[in-house]
Write a structure and sequence with these properties.
Length: 220
């Protein structure tokens, strides 16, 4: 069998938001039993059928790069992460729905990965001070995923999900909210599964088919 083409997707967010559990669920459709802190970066692979069910269907490898979420003040921390940000085709921004600060920090993570970070060790947005134009010309597909949905009381969910919907709007990205300990949130045919597939299709298109809005040929 011919080798599959692949794309590189960063998985970014603060420590403890559940990035490793999410990546394991995405790649193996299984719950990660004993998640541990990621040091540096961990890479796992998901097989994705681009435009599944159409004549253009083709199988790709999605490399998910789970980057350690330390937000330490040392410049060396950022410099170490920078080596993982090369040749990126897509970014999944992960936040903990029970931790508002982890949501705010997604702006910092995205700017750092896009080499536009002006304050690498602090939160770039608080109380609506975010400038949406910072991401106006970003060409890398983004997806926002909120974890630990199960830990939000039913009486608080509407309030929290309304707030995070604005977060996804700022990034011009689709949003998925889930519990990484329950695979049903990504069950085939569910709205979350459709959003995820659409995101991966967009990443593949940007990498292999689109250049300045025009289709280009890719030779394996």
């Amino acid at each position: 069998m011919a080798a599959l083409d692949r794309v590189k997707v960063l998985v970014l967010g603060d420590s403890g938001v559940g990035k490793s559990s999410l990546v394991h669920l995405l790649c193996h459709n299984q719950v990660l039993g004993n998640p541990s802190w990621t040091v540096g970066c961990s890479v796992d692979v998901r097989i994705h059928d681009y435009k599944e069910g159409t004549p253009e269907e083709k199988t790709y490898y999605i490399e998910l790069w789970d980057v350690g979420g330390s937000v330490g003040s040392a410049t060396s921390v950022k410099s170490t992460r920078a080596v993982f940000y090369n040749l990126v085709n897509g970014i999944i921004l992960v936040h903990d729905l029970t931790n508002k600060k982890s949501s705010q920090n997604l702006y910092r993570w995205s700017l750092e990965a896009l080499n536009r970070d002006v304050a690498p060790t602090g939160v770039l947005v608080t109380n609506g001070d975010y400038d949406r134009e910072q991401f106006g010309d970003n060409q890398i597909p983004l997806l926002v995923i909120g974890t630990k949905l199960d830990q939000i009381p039913e009486t608080k969910r509407n309030e929290v999900l309304t707030r995070t919907a604005f977060l996804a709007e700022d990034f011009n990205a689709e949003e998925i909210n889930l519990d990484c300990t329950n695979p049903r949130y990504l069950a085939a045919g569910s709205s979350n599964a459709v959003k995820l597939s659409r995101f991966f299709d967009k990443v593949i298109e940007k990498r292999y088919f689109l250049r300045d809005g025009n289709q280009v040929c890719h030779f394996s």
